[in-house]
Amino acid sequence: HISQKMILQIEVRIRRRSSKWCDLLMKFLYLSLVAALQVPHRELRPVFQRYAVKTSSREEVQVSQVQLKSLPVVNGVPDSRHEHHLDEKKTSEDIVTTQQPKRSFGTAATSRNSVELSSKQKEKMQMMKKRRRRSPWLNRKERRFLRRSITIWNRALRFAIKFYRTTGKYPKGSRSDDAIEARRQLASDLKEQLIELGPTFIKFGQLLSTRVDVFPPEVIDELVALQNDVPGFPARRAKAIICDDLQIKDISQIFVRFDEKPLAAASLAQVHRAQLLDGTEVVVKVQRDGLKEMIGVDFRNIRWVAALADRLDPEEEGVSSNWLGIAKSAETVLWKEIDFRIERANCELFQQNMANLPYVKVPNTYPNFSSERVLVMEYVQGRKITDPSILDDPDIDGAALSARLTTSYLEQLCRHGFFHCDPHPGNNCIKINYIK
User: Fold this and answer.
1) Is 422 a catalytic residue?
2) Each residue's pLDDT tens digit in the chain (436 positions)?
3) Which of 19, 26, 25 is nearest to 50 (CA)?
4) How many folded domains does the chain comprise?
5) Residue 337 lies inside a defined structural domain of this protein
6) Contact, 93 vs 54, CB < 8 A?
7) Per-residue CA distances from 205 to 74, 107, 193 (Å)
8) Distance between CA atoms of 51 and 61, rounded to whole angstroms?
9) Of the candidates 296, 270, 262, the residue with the CA atom closest to the CA atom of residue 373
10) Is 255 helix (H, G, I), strand (E, B) or coil?
11) Of 227, 252, 285, the domain-final residue
12) Domain that holds residue 429
């Protein structure tokens, strides 16, 4: 039952492990099949055409079979781990001939070149490990779907157990000191779990932090930290992404100054202050490395959870919950959000729509210095809209501020039909005495 597809899969796996020994191992596999089946299968000939040795007669097949039998056998399979490999420079006649073979698989001769190459290969592998880029959320091993899925489900189950143990001790809606502290600890643990799982789940936590109609204040107070208090990544990695996307050798070709410390770090990207060659103060938004791979893996798991939720909870008060549809919609939106070219175009359109409101400031963008993962925008100072000092500032009229916010959103919704879809406090700032 050996198929051509199976052999191709074997070749791909061998080449991933060691491209140097792939040809030799495939030749050995061909000889093994010849010895086991007596003649090569019709479907295997095209696959082994570049590896097949000259076996035009029955005698040659028998010789190859004898060579295989000379190998030590482990669990019924010829074991060549302690034997010496063939020299790749040898021709196929050196492997199988109609007479006594020049070198059999069981000979004790050792090639110095093979030993030297293997040591160099080990040194090269060690160098590659040192140069390997490490991500705080998704390292090279976890990029595989299975490992990442195990990480997600492991943390989800542990939190679910802790959640039911905590909530089971207190009546639903209890406002006792012990119940409030228990929920606060639970929310703090959830926040840490979301941060460790990465951008997809941090975005989910940011959404939860705005639902004051669903969660109690102690939970909101913990989750609100996800809007800004997200760990960043090294500035050298940000510079490498900028150079890679903008196709430049060094960021000094664009920026006179580039701050190493990020101004802010968010779930999908982080922002650095910089100065263009003409002296303009800007902020540079750089996307996190490996984000596409991570979102793809995470949403595959989220879709599974959503499909399971649809089966366990198909209706809520007679209305279909459609958790799977919600997950797919969220995935579509997030894929668009990580393409900064779309964000730049939206920013320019939003700026045009808000032109008749002098108290709304939309930062300018710089298309020549922006790409899919890099967005350069004008630097505008301001204070977070939830900053308590805003209400105490005598220069700020709270009623006027509220009216302007309401007017700006009515302008977006009713007049243009193009509005800000992520209005959490981290995306809205107040600038005192600003009029265009």
Assistant:
1) yes
2) 566 677 777 777 777 776 666 776 776 676 666 655 555 555 566 666 655 544 444 444 443 444 444 444 444 444 444 444 434 434 444 434 344 444 433 333 344 444 445 676 677 666 666 555 455 555 555 556 777 788 888 887 787 788 777 777 777 667 777 888 888 888 888 888 888 888 888 877 777 777 776 678 888 888 888 876 677 889 999 999 999 999 999 999 999 999 999 988 888 899 999 999 999 999 999 999 888 888 888 888 878 877 876 776 666 545 566 778 777 877 887 888 889 999 999 999 999 999 999 999 999 999 999 999 999 999 988 888 878 787 778 878 888 888 998 999 999 999 999 998 877 676 788 887 765 5
3) 26
4) 3
5) no
6) yes
7) 53, 64, 10
8) 15
9) 270
10) strand
11) 227
12) 383-436
343 in any annotated domain: no
Q: Which two tokens stand for residue 363?
A: 């930062």
Catalytic position from the list 87, 250, 393, 422: 422
Residue with tokens 């007596």: 38
SS3 365: strand
Give 246's contacts (C-beta < 8 A, 6+ positions apart): 254, 369, 371, 374
